[in-house]
Amino acid sequence: MFNNLGNLADLMRNAGKLRETVEKATESLGQVQVEGTAGAGAVTARANGRLELISIRIDPKLLADGDTELVEDLVTAAVNQALTRAREAAARSISSLAGGLPIPGFPGFPATPGSGGA
Hints:
Blueprint: H1 5-13, H2 15-29, E1 33-38, E2 43-48, E3 53-58, H3 60-64, H4 68-97
Antiparallel strand pairs: 1-2, 2-3
């Protein structure tokens, strides 16, 4: 039981450095950009590593057809694909920073037991 006290002391001593690393990682996630497409490229959605939607491009020919339901479905598919890719890119980025350890609260990482995450 007392063997882990040294590890806890190290963690407490490095808390400021860890917080700074997490802040830098969060900031860098905004620089990660990925795309999702649907309808053979008729709709393109761009998202960043913070899971923010940056832009959507819809081919004007698709809008000219007047099929609103199709446009809605393609936008949804492209956004979902972009967000999935952003989550995966963010997980890779954070994982490399964390030495492969899961970090609850970051996209793509499962919450650890007892953390209250999903």
